[in-house]
Amino acid sequence: MLYFSILLCLACLAGGTIIGIMKYKKWYNPMSLLNALFFVIVFFASFRFFSYKEVHDTTYLLLAFAALGYNVGCILTLAVKHAKKCIPIIDHSPKLSKYVWLMDAVLFVLYVCELINVSPLYVAGADSATIRGVYFEGNMETIVGSMDLWSLIRPYIEVPLTIVCVAISCVWLINYKNYIQFIFAILFVAANIAVSYGRFVLFYIVICLLLTHALSKRFLLTKKNYVKLRLTHSMAKGVSLKNKKVGNVKWFVAIFAGTILYLSVYRGVDKFTAFFYEYFCGCVFLLDQLIQELPENSTWGVCSFQSIIAPIYTVLHQFGIPYSAEYMDALNILALKDGAHVISEKGQVTNAFSTPIFALYADFGLVGVFWGMCLLGFIFCEIYQLARNKPTERNICLYAVVGINLFKCIQEYPFSTTLFTFTMAFIWLLYRNEKVYTFK
Fold first, then answer.
1. pLDDT of amino acid 235
2. I need a surface site. Which of 6, 37, 90, 105 has the fewest CB within 10 A?
3. How are beta strands 349-350 and 341-342 bridged, if at all?
4. Which of 244-258, 305-319, 382-396 has the lowest mean pLDDT?
């Protein structure tokens, strides 16, 4: 039964990858990307390298069920009528630049305060594990602001705005060769690493660069360029409007990949094969343990949609309304994934990387896994269609965030984190006055 479950799971994932390429034509469509990512994960996890513990067949069946739901959601978007493909003409609003600079100023102030708070640890010679523990557990006296305040600022303002800054800087770098905003983004990312010793944020830059590079093949015209083209009839002469993208994106990617490896060494990684196996395939083994530990009572959406529900409870709590017992029970269940779990016979420990299935299964069981992944596939593919047919700055930034959350699916359900919901909301707010015309 175990081998049948593995083969069924791999078949669903492989089928989704192939259908995605056939239907959406491009390799970077969300249907193919997520299916291909989990195909590789499940394939290597099935071999149980480094003496990892055996996974129950029900876990592989859940993965197959989730893949089926996700693929159904992706295919449903094909039935929705979308706008025809066009070459967008961007009319930059002066307000946009002001809002971006305001965002940079806010991030600068926040990260300066963060660095001031963490500076005593560096002076004391604390190691990376201690600094990382302080960032995520909040067990430190702060110099600027209270820890309760930072527990609200980080997930709802600091991290989402950092991702927005990264996405916009990649679009501006590749389309307009704007290096200044990209430098700001690098500085904010460096500050984030300094206070958290996280490596995921470097993956975010790589993903944004690759997806922006792929989506920006058609020129993002300005109104000035549009007038010139109309006057010279260059379109009638068959002049190509392919975007002259920055040619050294591969060097940026290589630099960030090298930085990820350096941080891994600094944090004590000595065997890279074992490290990458645990980093990517460990989610299958952790999910297997978490499924066995889940209590029978449902959490009714709190785990899956934490980024939407938590702000409501937080605001109500500020007005003196206590958290409900059901909400606290749901948080305790969600916290199961943050505990240390031994996933190998040699004592390898991991946490957090629980895939979207854990939260969905905790909320609504099998029904939640299928329809939650179906919703995710539909939303991701709708944004992809929007970015492909009308590759404006806003739409490319939105799909860059989708790409980041596709990768984050090895860790959690996107709607359970503000990295998806609040980042999307900030991008929509920044570009709410974006004026776009169509070249005819």
1. 37
2. 105
3. antiparallel
4. 244-258
Q: What are the tokens at 395?
A: 């739409």
- Measured distance CA(151)–CA(2) in Å, rounded: 43
Is residue 291 within 8 Å of residue 326, measured between CB atoms? no
Per-residue pLDDT reduced to its tens digit, 264-313: 655 555 566 777 788 888 899 999 999 988 887 777 788 888 888 888 88
Q: Which helix (H) or strand (E) holds 440?
A: none
Alpha-carbon distance of 65 to 9, in angstroms, equals: 8
Nearest C-alpha neighbor of 333 from the set 343, 342, 325: 325
Task: Using alpha carbons only, give the angle 366, 367, 371 rounded to the nearest 5 degrees.
Answer: 120
Token match 């990512």: residue? 37
Q: Residue 103 and residue 108: Cα distance in Å, rounded?
A: 9
- Tens digits of residue pLDDT in 17-64: 999 999 888 889 999 999 999 999 999 999 998 888 889 999 999 999
Which domain covers residue 153, as residue numbers?
A: 2-438
Integer-rounded Cα radius of gyration of the chain: 23
Which residue is listed with tokens 């800087």?
169
Give the side-chain half-sphere CA count within 13 A for 350.
29
| 303 vs 417: CA distance, rounded Å | 10
**What is the spatial distance between Cα 42 and Cα 175, in angstroms, rounded to a whole number?**
37
Instruction: Read off the tokens for 110.
Output: 């926040």
| Structural contact between residues 199 and 264, judged by C-beta atoms closer than 8 angstroms | yes
User: Around 413, how many Cα atoms within 13 Å sit in the side-chain half-sphere?
Assistant: 33
Domain count, the chain: 1
- H or E segment to which residue 280 belongs: none
- The residue count for the chain: 440
Is pLDDT at 163 greater than 90 in this prediction? yes
Q: Which residue has the higher pLDDT, 330 or 377?
A: 377
Instruction: Give 143's DSSP letter.
Output: S
Identify the helix (H) or strand (E) that includes residue 377: helix 355-389
Single pTM value for the model: 0.87
Task: Order the strands of the 88-91 sheet from edge to edge.
Answer: 221-222, 88-91, 435-438
Looking only at the bridges linking them, the beta strands covering 88-91 and 435-438 are antiparallel
